[in-house]
UniProtKB/TrEMBL annotation:
NCBIfam families: xanthine_xdhA (TIGR02963). One of its GO terms (cellular component) is peroxisome. It is found in: Peroxisome. The lineage of its organism: Eukaryota, Metazoa, Chordata, Craniata, Vertebrata. Its EC number is 1.17.1.4, 1.17.3.2. It catalyses: hypoxanthine + NAD(+) + H2O = xanthine + NADH + H(+); xanthine + O2 + H2O = urate + H2O2; xanthine + NAD(+) + H2O = urate + NADH + H(+). It is an enzyme of class 1 (oxidoreductase). Homodimer. [2Fe-2S] cluster 2 binds at C90, C93, C125, C127. This is Xanthine dehydrogenase/oxidase.
C-alpha cells in the first residue's frame, strides 16, 4: 500500500491528491521527516506519496497539507500566499505546490529564487501558467526581484498590482510542527529487521549488511528497493510482480560516503540529493581540474526528475535499473567508475565499461549479488569531461539522447592520449563507440579530428529505423551535435590552459562560442496591466476588482472537496474498466475465470447487464456504453469489474481475457480518407501550395475523470457525483442507459480539478458505466481513473492536417485562399462536426482575404474519439492561417509583421461567413503590443544577435487572434439560474455552469453582488446540480460567464422588483430589514433566471446570419532562442494584449490568459501523443507525455488587458476569456520558425519551408539543416514499420 492510499482511504486525509500515480506531477507531495542515523540529524524531504510504500516509513513523521493550516483556524503563510497571489485555479495541484514550498522553507527559511524554482521541478499545473505561483512564493526569497516595470503606470487608470504582499502573514520558523521526540529516540536505537506480508508481496527491511546478503542469497530473484521510483511504477503500470522486496535503505555501509585518493565512494543507497550535496561541496573545495566528472554529474542532476524523486531515488537503483536512457550511467561509464559488489560468498570490484550492461535492462551482477558502492574518480590536469542530455522538456524529463565524454591529452599538447565516449538512447544498453574512440587516439584536437569523429560516429552509432522511441535521424544527429559541442568546449579550455605553457592552440571562433554554453535560463519576471475601476465605484461593488478565487484558500489547505474526496459510503464498491487491447476487431469471447479468483471481486458488468439502451453519444447516437460484438479502438470500454477496493478491481480487470478476430485498423488521417482539393478558379500570378500538420493534445487535467454513483433504492432513483462540465447531458445519457426518466437521476458537481473540454462529453463514458454497475449491485460504486486509463480512453484535441493554396501579390497582400482541413475524429462523431465547423469559421484568423474557399472533413479512424479541447477547432484553423501567412512573407522577402499588418481586418469588414466586425479592436491591440514589447528595437537586437552567433539563433513573431464567442449550435446558447434569499439575508446562488478552476462561481457571485447591491460575503454557491437548474448547456465555448451571468442577473432583477416596495417603505433600512419585511408579507424570495443569446443563427446554404454574438481579440509578441545543434529552445519574452471588454475580475482574467497561453505553448512546441501503427497510445502519463513545466515560462512575460473597450453584448460590458488566449502561444511557434529561418540561411537555404506543430526539439533540429544532419539521412518511408505513426 502506498502512503497516498493510506492517507486518503485509511485516515480520511484527502488534502493530498492523486494526479498520476507515477511521481510525475507532484499533486501527492508530502513532507517526510526522519532522524538520519548516518548524518546524525533530522532531515526533511518532499516526496511523492503515490510512490512511497507505507512500510518504508518506519520511524518517519509525515506532514501533509491537512496538518499545516486550515481556513477556520490558522493558515500557514505558504497556503495564504499561493491563494492570495492567485496561484490556485482548479486547485487540484495546489496541495502539492504548498508542500513542496513548505518543505523548502523547513530546510531553508530564506531561499533564493533558484532554490524556489528547483523545489518545483517535480510539480505540474495545467491551469495557472505557473507565473502567479512563483510570484506569490517569490515573497519568501531573501532577495526580492520585482522584475519588469511599466512606464505607463503613471496613468492612474492602469493598475499592475493584484494583491498587497505587505499584508501577508510573516513566516515564523519557530512555530512549525516539531519532529516527534519519541521518533527521535527510536531513530537513535539500533535498527532491527522488519517484515511486512501483503497479499502478494513480502517486504523485508534488513538491519545489517550481513542480513541483507543472507536474504539475497535466500531470495536471489528479490528486488532491492530504496525509493520505489522504478519498481513501484513497474508493478503498477507494467503488471510486474516481485514477490519479495528487500529494503536496504537503513544499512550503514550502503549509506556511507568516503573520500579516497582516487575519488569519492558513495554507498549504493545514497540518494541523488545526497550525491548532489557532496559533489557540490567537493567542487567548491577542490582544484577545478580534479572535479571535471563531478561537475558533469551535477549538470545531469540539474535535470534529473524532480526534487521529490531525487530525495528518495538511490544511486545504486539508477545503475541497476540499467535503463538505456539513464541520465547518469553514460557519465559513470565515460568516467570509468568502479563498482563494488557483494554476495554472501564474495566481494568483487567491477569497472563500469561496455561489458557491464550485457543486454536490455541487464547488468553483470549475479542474482545473489548486491551493488555495495560506486567510486567516482577525480580528474587530472589535461583531462576534460562533459555530460549532455537532450530531452523533450528541459525539466523533469527522460532523455532522448544522453552522453558522457572524457578526453585526456598528452602533457602540454593537444594530442589525444585517451578518449572515452558513452551514449544512452542509442541502443538497448548504454554504449561506447569503441571504433571511433580508437580512431581518435593520437590525433590533434582540430578540425580534422572533428571530421573524422563525426564520420565515424555516423557509421558506428546507427539505429534501425523502427527503433523504440522513434526520432532515429534526430537521435543519430544528436550524437554528432553533442560531440561537436564537446569538441568546441575542449578546444576553448585547451587554448586557455596551454597558453600558460606557451603552447598555442587556436581558440573557438567568437560566433561559435555559444555552442559551448550550458543551458541557462534567468528567473522569470512579469508585469500584469489592467484597468482600474471607475472613480466613485462602491467599495462593496467587486465587479472589475482583482478579487481572489473564492475557493482558493480551501484549495490551499486541502479542504476543498473534489469528487474522489467524498467520504466512502459504508457499503461502497470500486470499479475498474475492462478495455480493448485491439484497435479494430470482433469480440469472440470474454473469459472472467481468472479474474473471479482475485480477492474482493463482487461482479462483472458487460453490455448484457445494461437495463436500458446501450446506444449513447453526446450529439449523435453512434457509440455504445459497452462494446458488445466489436471494438473500434484500443481503450474501447468492453466491461467493468466491481470489487471491494480499487486495487482488487484493477487487478481483476487486467486478467480478464478477451479473444479477438482482428481487422485492419485505420489510424492516421492519410489512410482514413483520400485527399481532395479544389483550387480557386481565379487567375493567380503568385501563389503558394503548402500544408501543415497540427498534432493532437491530451487535456491532462490534474484530476482525472471520477464518478460516484449512489442508487437510492426506490423508483429507479440514483444520485451521481461527477467531475463533469455537462451535468445535464450526463443525467440524460445515464437515464437512457438505465432505462428510467431523467427525473430519476440527479447529477451533482461541486468542482472539477480542471476540464478544458475533456469533461464536456467524454466524462459520460465513465459515468454511464459506473451508474450501470451501481444499478446492478444496488450499492454505491466509485471509480476515479488512473492517469494512464484516463489518457487511454478519453481522447483529446483533434489532430488536423491543413492543405492550402494561397494567392498573393508581391507587396504581400493576399487576394485568394483555398484551404482544406482534415480532422482525425477517432472512432465516433462525438463533437467533431462542431469542431471542424469552428475551424472553418476561423480559417482566415484576423485577415481580410477577398476570395476564400474552405472545406472541412471529419476523418473516422480507429482511435479513441477525439473531443472538445480549449479552442474547439479554432486554434487549428488559425494555425493553418498563420502557416500560409508565414509562407507568403518568406516568399516575398518581406518581414512577417508587415505582411500580417497589411492584411488585418478593419472595423466594419465582413468575414467569409458574412458577419460584420463591430467594435473591432485588433488594430488597437496590435499597436499596444508593438509598444509594450518594444518590437522594433527587439527586432534589431535579434538581427544583431543572429549575425554574431552561428549555432544559437533568436526569432521574433507577432500574431493576432480573432475568436468567435457563442456555441455554433444555437440551442446551446441559453442558461438558467436559481437564487434563494434566506431570512437572515444570506443568498444561495445556483446556476447552470460548473466550476473547473476558471473562476466562474467567483464571477457569478460578483455579478449577483452588484445586481443585488450586497457584499459578496452574503452570497454562496454550493454546487451545480440538475435538480436545481435543469436542462443546462455544457460549461464550454467560453460563453459560461456571458450566459450564466445574464441568467443570474435576470433572477436578481426579479427579486429586486419584489423587494422594491419594502425599500421604498423603509429607505434607511438594511438588506436584512427589507428581506424580513418581504418574508412576513409572504413574498416569494426565490427566483429563476433565464437568458438566451439573441439574434444568433448561421445558415451554411445561404452564407448568412450571425454565427457569433461577438469576437474576442488579442495580439501576442514572442522572442525565442534556439540551440541549432540540439533543437532546444527557450522563450525569452512574451507580450500579450487581450481584449476582455470590461473585465469582471482582472485577476481571474489574467490567470485565464496566462494559463491558456501556457497550454497553447504545450500544444505548439512540446506536447506529442505517440500512437503505434496498431493504434495503441504509447504516451500514457507524465513520464512519456510532457506538458509545460515551471521552467517553460517566458523569461519576461507581460500581460495587458486592453483598456477602454467595453462590450455591449455581454454582462456588465465584459468579454469571454477562457479559450481566445490559447492561440497567443502561436507567437512562440512562429518565433521559433523565424529563428530556424536564420539558421537555415547559414546553410544557404531560403524561402518557405514546412514546420509541423508542435515545434519540438526534434523538428527544430531537423529543420536547421547543416553538415551534421546530412550525415544522418532518414530511411525511405515505406521501407520499415515505424515505432509511432503520425495520426
Amino acid at each position: 500500500m502506498t502512503l497516498l492510499t493510506y492517507l486518503r482511504r485509511k485516515l480520511g486525509l484527502t488534502g493530498t491528491k492523486l494526479g498520476c500515480a507515477e511521481g510525475g506531477c507532484g499533486a501527492c507531495t508530502v513532507m517526510i521527516s526522519k532522524f538520519h542515523p548516518h548524518l546524525k540529524c533530522i532531515v526533511h524531504h518532499a516526496v511523492n506519496a503515490c510512490l512511497a510504500p507505507v512500510c518504508s516509513l518506519h520511524h518517519c513523521a509525515v506532514i501533509t497539507v491537512d496538518g499545516i493550516g486550515t481556513v477556520a483556524s490558522r493558515l500557514h503563510p505558504v497556503q495564504e500566499r499561493i491563494a492570495k497571489a492567485h496561484g490556485s485555479q482548479c486547485g487540484f495541484c495546489t496541495p502539492g505546490m504548498v508542500m513542496s514550498m513548505y518543505t523548502l522553507l523547513r530546510n531553508n527559511p530564506e531561499p533564493s529564487m533558484v532554490d524556489i524554482e528547483e523545489a518545483f521541478q517535480g510539480n505540474l499545473c495545467r491551469c495557472t501558467g505557473y507565473r502567479p505561483i512563483l510570484e506569490g512564493y517569490k515573497t519568501f526569497a531573501k532577495v526580492l526581484d520585482f522584475g519588469l516595470w511599466y512606464c505607463a503606470l503613471e496613468d492612474p487608470t492602469v493598475l499592475n498590482q493584484m494583491y498587497d504582499p505587505s499584508k501577508f502573514i510573516p513566516l515564523d520558523p519557530t512555530q512549525e510542527v516539531i519532529f516527534p521526540p519519541e521518533l527521535l529516540n527510536l531513530g537513535k536505537q539500533p535498527p532491527r529487521q522488519m517484515k511486512f506480508k501483503g497479499e502478494r508481496v513480502l517486504w523485508i527491511q534488513p538491519s545489517t549488511l550481513t542480513e541483507l546478503l543472507d536474504l539475497k542469497s535466500h531470495y536471489p530473484e528479490s528486488k532491492l528497493v530504496v525509493g520505489n521510483t522504478e519498481v513501484g511504477i513497474e508493478m503498477k503500470f507494467k503488471n510486474l510482480l516481485y514477490p519479495v522486496i528487500l529494503a536496504p535503505a537503513y544499512i550503514s555501509e550502503l549509506n556511507s560516503v568516503q573520500h579516497t585518493k582516487q575519488g569519492i565512494v558513495f554507498g549504493a543507497a545514497c540518494t541523488l540529493t545526497l550525491l548532489g550535496e557532496v559533489l557540490r561541496d567537493a567542487v567548491a573545495k577542490l582544484p577545478t581540474y580534479q572535479t571535471e566528472v563531478f561537475k558533469a554529474i551535477l549538470e545531469q542532476l540539474r535535470w534529473f526528475a524532480g526534487k521529490q524523486i531525487r530525495n528518495v531515488a538511490a544511486i545504486g537503483g539508477n545503475i541497476m535499473t540499467a535503463s538505456p536512457i539513464s541520465d547518469l550511467n553514460p557519465v559513470f561509464m565515460a568516467a570509468a567508475c568502479k563498482l563494488t559488489t557483494m554476495s554472501k560468498d564474495e566481494r568483487r570490484v567491477l569497472k563500469m565499461d561496455d561489458n557491464f550492461f550485457p543486454g536490455y535492462r541487464k547488468t553483470a551482477l549475479k542474482p545473489e549479488e548486491i551493488l555495495l558502492s560506486i567510486e567516482i574518480p577525480y580528474t587530472k590536469k589535461g583531462q576534460y569531461f562533459s555530460a549532455f542530455k537532450q530531452s523533450p522538456r528541459q525539466e523533469d524529463d527522460i532523455a532522448i539522447v544522453t552522453c558522457g565524454m572524457n578526453v585526456v591529452f598528452k602533457e602540454g599538447s593537444n594530442i589525444v592520449e585517451k578518449i572515452l565516449l558513452s551514449f544512452g538512447g542509442m541502443a538497448p544498453t548504454t554504449v561506447i563507440p569503441k571504433t571511433t574512440c580508437k580512431k581518435l587516439i593520437g590525433s590533434a584536437w582540430n578540425e580534422k579530428l572533428l571530421e573524422d569523429a563525426c564520420a565515424s560516429l555516423a557509421e558506428e552509432m546507427v539505429l534501425p529505423p523502427s527503433a523504440p522511441g522513434g526520432m532515429v535521424p534526430y537521435r543519430r544527429t544528436l550524437t554528432l551535435s553533442l560531440f561537436f559541442k564537446f569538441y568546441l568546449t575542449v578546444k576553448h579550455y585547451l587554448a586557455v590552459d596551454l597558453q600558460h605553457e606557451n603552447v598555442t592552440v587556436e581558440d573557438v571562433k567568437p560566433d561559435y562560442s555559444s555552442a559551448t554554453e550550458l543551458f541557462h535560463k534567468d528567473s522569470p519576471s512579469s508585469v500584469q496591466l489592467f484597468q482600474a475601476v471607475p472613480p466613485g465605484q462602491s467599495s462593496e461593488d467587486f465587479v472589475g476588482r482583482p478579487i481572489m478565487h473564492l475557493s482558493a484558500l480551501k484549495q490551499a489547505t486541502g479542504e476543498a472537496v473534489y469528487c474522489d474526496d467524498i467520504p466512502c459510503y459504508e457499503n461502497e464498491l470500486h470499479l475498474a474498466l475492462i478495455t480493448s487491447t485491439k484497435a479494430h476487431a470482433h469480440i469472440l469471447s470474454i473469459d472472467t475465470g481468472e479474474a473471479m479468483t482475485v480477492p474482493g471481486v463482487v461482479a462483472f458488468v458487460f453490455a448484457k447487464d445494461i437495463p436500458g439502451s446501450n446506444i449513447t453519444g453526446p450529439a449523435f447516437y453512434d457509440e455504445s456504453v459497452l462494446a458488445e460484438k466489436m471494438v473500434t479502438c484500443v481503450g474501447h470500454i468492453v466491461g467493468a469489474v466491481v470489487a471491494d477496493t480499487q486495487a482488487h478491481a484493477q487487478r481483476a480487470a487486467k486478467v480478464v481475457k478477451i479473444t479477438y478476430d482482428e481487422l485492419k485498423p485505420i489510424i492516421s488521417i492519410q489512410v482514413s480518407t483520400c485527399f481532395t482539393m479544389t483550387i480557386t478558379s481565379l487567375s493567380l500570378s503568385f501563389y503558394i501550395i503548402g500544408e501543415i500538420h497540427i498534432g493532437g493534445q491530451e487535456h491532462f487535467y490534474l484530476e482525472t475523470n471520477c464518478t460516484v454513483a449512489v442508487p437510492k433504492g426506490e423508483d429507479g432513483e440514483m444520485e451521481l457525483f461527477v467531475s463533469t462540465q455537462t451535468a445535464s447531458k450526463t443525467q440524460a445519457l445515464v437515464a437512457k442507459a438505465l432505462g428510467v426518466p431523467a427525473n430519476r437521476i440527479v447529477c451533482r458537481v461541486k468542482r472539477m480539478g480542471g476540464g478544458f473540454g475533456g469533461k464536456e462529453s467524454r466524462s459520460i463514458i465513465l459515468s454511464t458505466v459506473v451508474a450501470v454497475a451501481a444499478s446492478k449491485v444496488k450499492r454505491p460504486v466509485r471509480c476515479m481513473l488512473d492517469r494512464d486509463e484516463d489518457m487511454l480512453v478519453t481522447g483529446g484535441r483533434h489532430p488536423f492536417l491543413g492543405r492550402y493554396k494561397v494567392g498573393y501579390m508581391t507587396s504581400g497582400k493576399i487576394i485568394a485562399l483555398d484551404v482544406t482541413f482534415y480532422a482525425n475524429a477517432g472512432n465516433s462523431k462525438d463533437l467533431s462536426f462542431s469542431i471542424v465547423e469552428r475551424a472553418l469559421f476561423h480559417m482566415e484568423n484576423s485577415y481580410n482575404i477577398p476570395h476564400v474557399c474552405g472545406t472541412g472533413y471529419m476523418c473516422k479512424t480507429n482511435l479513441p474519439s477525439n473531443t472538445a479541447f480549449r479552442g474547439f477547432g479554432g486554434p487549428q484553423g488559425m494555425m493553418v492561417a498563420e502557416s500560409w501567412m508565414s509562407d507568403v512573407a518568406l516568399a516575398c522577402g518581406i518581414p512577417s509583421y508587415e505582411v500580417r499588418r497589411m492584411n488585418l481586418y478593419n472595423e466594419g469588414d465582413l468575414t467569409p461567413f458574412n458577419q460584420r466586425l463591430e467594435q473591432f479592436t485588433i488594430g488597437k491591440c496590435w499597436e499596444e503590443c508593438l509598444d509594450i514589447s518594444n518590437y522594433m528595437k527587439r527586432q534589431g537586437a535579434v538581427e544583431e544577435f543572429n549575425r554574431q552567433h552561428r549555432w544559437t539563433k533568436r526569432g521574433l513573431s507577432i500574431i493576432p487572434t480573432k475568436f468567435g464567442i457563442s456555441f455554433t449550435s444555437v440551442f446551446l446558447n441559453q442558461a438558467g439560474a436559481l437564487v434563494h434569499i434566506y431570512t437572515d439575508g444570506s443568498v444561495l446562488l445556483t446556476h447552470g455552469g460548473t466550476e473547473m478552476g476558471q473562476g466562474l462561481h467567483t464571477k457569478m457571485v460578483q455579478v449577483a453582488s452588484r445586481a443585488l447591491g450586497i457584499p459578496c460575503s452574503k452570497i454562496f454557491i454550493s454546487e451545480t446540480s440538475t435538480n436545481t437548474v435543469a436542462n443546462t448547456s455544457p460549461t464550454a465555448a467560453s460563453a459560461s460567464s456571458d450566459l450564466n451571468g445574464m441568467a443570474v442577473y435576470n433572477a436578481c432583477q426579479t427579486l429586486l422588483q419584489r423587494l422594491e416596495p419594502y425599500k421604498v417603505k423603509n429607505p434607511k433600512g438594511s438588506w436584512e430589514d427589507w428581506v424580513n419585511a418581504a418574508y412576513f408579507d409572504r413574498v416569494n424570495l426565490s427566483a429563476n433566471g433565464f437568458y438566451k443569446t439573441p439574434d444568433l443563427g448561421y445558415n451554411f446554404d445561404s452564407n448568412s446570419g450571425r454565427a457569433f454574438n461577438y469576437f474576442s481579440y488579442g495580439v501576442s509578441c514572442s522572442e525565442v532562442e534556439i540551440d541549432c545543434l540540439t533543437g532546444r529552445q527557450k522563450t525569452l519574452h512574451t507580450t500579450i494584449v487581450m481584449d476582455v471588454g470590461k473585465s469582471l475580475n482582472p485577476a481571474i482574467d489574467i490567470g485565464q490568459v496566462e494559463g491558456a497561453f501556457m497550454q497553447g505553448l504545450g500544444l505548439f512546441t512540446l506536447e506529442e501523443l505517440h500512437y503505434s501503427p496498431q493504434g495503441s497510445l504509447l504516451t500514457r502519463g507524465p513520464g512519456m507525455y510532457k506538458i509545460p513545466a515551471f521552467g517553460d515560462i517566458p523569461v519576461e512575460l507581460q500581460v495587458s488587458l486592453l483598456r477602454d473597450s467595453p462590450n455591449d453584448k455581454a454582462i456588465f460590458s465584459s468579454k469571454a476569456v477562457g479559450e481566445p488566449p490559447l492561440f497567443m502561444a502561436a507567437s512562440v511557434f512562429y518565433a521559433i520558425k523565424d529563428a530556424i529561418t536564420a539558421a537555415r540561411s547559414e546553410s544557404g537555404l531560403s524561402g518557405p519551408f514546412r514546420l509541423d506543430s508542435p515545434a519540438t526539439s526534434e523538428r527544430i533540429r531537423n529543420a536547421c539543416e547543416d553538415r551534421f544532419t546530412k550525415l544522418c539521412p532518414p530511411a525511405e518511408p515505406g521501407t520499415y514499420t515505424p515505432w509511432a505513426v503520425r495520426v
